[in-house]
Amino acid sequence: RLVADGFDRGRVEALLGDKRVAINGTTLSYAIVYREFPADYSKFLLEERLSRARAFIAANRELLAAATARTGVPGEVIAAILMIESDFGAYRKLHSVLNVFATLLWAAEPANFETVQAIVQKRLPDVSAEKVREKTKSKAKWGYEQLTYLLRIAEREKIDLPALEGSWAGAFGMSQFIPSSYWGYAVDGDGDGRADLYTVADAVFSVGNYLK
After folding, report:
1. Could you tell me the maximum CA-CA distance found in the chain, to the nearest angstrom?
2. pLDDT attached to residue 35
3. What is the C-alpha separation between 180 and 93, in angstroms, rounded?
4. Which letter does DSSP use for residue 112 in this model?
5. Alpha-carbon span 206 to 196, nearest angstrom
6. What are the pLDDT digits (tens) for 41-80?
7. CA distance 1 to 3
8. Within a 13 Å sphere around the CA of 185, how many CA atoms are in the beta-carbon half?
């Protein structure tokens, strides 16, 4: 399918044949049937968090001001997003981003249904088989789209894709962009010719660009 959509066959086969490509059980148990809970923002108002946010703003005042001048987004807002999304890069429960989307596609294959259902129902016993089928199908559609963006990103930025790490949901960098958001809004903030969301300057300017 990737080859039919214009990706090089040799590159795709080498990538999917990499020994680091594997099924992510965390993605299966959380992403297939995800239940949204009301967000608790009180933890971000604790003095410990606020102190780190003030320190980040103080240390990056000129950078934030430059991002504000370019995008119109206040530096404090950009800092708040980076605090909530990754605690300024300190949040490190990382997974292979490639494996996240490979897992979503694997989960939609009929031959894998019983395995997927068992994993999901271990966490959510009341989820029906119909719901699991419905969600795996919709997640696979989304996952394939994200995978195509991820391949483009890896090619443009010269990334060792199986080594790229992010969340169980496939978001990565200080700003926790999914691949389509990266492709549409990530920018080079430090002038090195690359958009690397694990660097402060690029993350700051990319969040400003996204919100703009």
Report:
1. 55
2. 67
3. 21
4. G
5. 9
6. 899 999 999 999 999 999 999 999 999 999 999 999 999 9
7. 5
8. 18
Position 125: which residue type? P
**Cα(168)–Cα(119) distance, integer angstroms:** 15
Report the C-alpha gap between 24 and 26 in whole angstroms. Answer: 5
Which two three-digit tokens encode residue 195?
A: 């958009």
Element (H, E) at 111: none
Q: What is the mean pLDDT of residues 197-212?
A: 97
Residues 6+ apart with CB under 8 A from 111: none
What's the Cα-to-Cα distance from 55 to each of 51, 60, 148, 191, rounded to whole Å?
Answer: 6, 8, 38, 24
CB 30 within 8 A of CB 167: no
pLDDT of residue 196: 94
What are the Cα distances from residue 95, in Å, to 55, 115, 180, 197? Answer: 28, 21, 18, 16
Other Cβ atoms less than 10 A from the Cβ of 161: the count is: 19
Lowest mean pLDDT across 15-19, 27-31, 43-47, 66-70: 27-31
